[in-house]
Amino acid sequence: MVCIAVGTVGVIMKEYLFAACTIIIGLAALSARFIPANFVPRNYFFVTWFAIGLVVASFFLGLQNARWHLLAGMWATHIITMSGQTDDLRVRLIRSGDRGLLFFDPSTKMINFVKWSDVKRIQSLCNC
Fold it and tell me: What are the pLDDT digits (tens) for 14-48?
């Protein structure tokens, strides 16, 4: 019960990964208490329970990472010069891949994707 209460406090404080993990541990402990010891598929139940818990925890890890990029990253870390445009984009770079750049634009508060063929130059503003 303590884990579930601590997890609820984590949700209120918007620490979603911590909250999800503690609630999952609390629910697993509660379910272990009420399942009889001689119940044959008990091991399968716990393997399934923790597999589902791992999926839920990884979802909340991604959610917390996205919130960090959106809320804590309101300052620009890179300048992107686009081919065919005169204005430079002051953005926070999230990820670069083989197809292009994924970035957060603080002026529009949106996440955008740009293909490499449209990028002329990238300049870093800090040592991030």
Answer: 777 778 778 777 877 777 677 766 766 767 777 77
Distances (CA, A) of 38 to 35, 43, 46, 88, 95: 9, 11, 14, 67, 50
Query: What's the full length of the chain, in residues?
Result: 128
- The angle at the Cα of 74, spanning 71 to 76, to the nearest 5 degrees, equals 145
C-alpha 108/C-alpha 104 separation (Å) is 9
Same domain, 99 and 67: no
6 plus 64 within the same structural domain: yes
Domain count, the chain: 2
- In this prediction, residue 100 has a pLDDT band, given cuts at 50, 70 and 90, of very high
Indicate the average pLDDT of the chain.
Answer: 79
> What tens digit of pLDDT does each residue of 1-10 get?
676 777 777 7
Predicted TM-score (pTM) above 0.85: no
Q: Which domain holds residue 57?
A: 2-72
The gap from C-alpha 90 to its chain's centroid, in whole angstroms, comes to 23
**Side chain identity at residue 126, one-letter code:** C
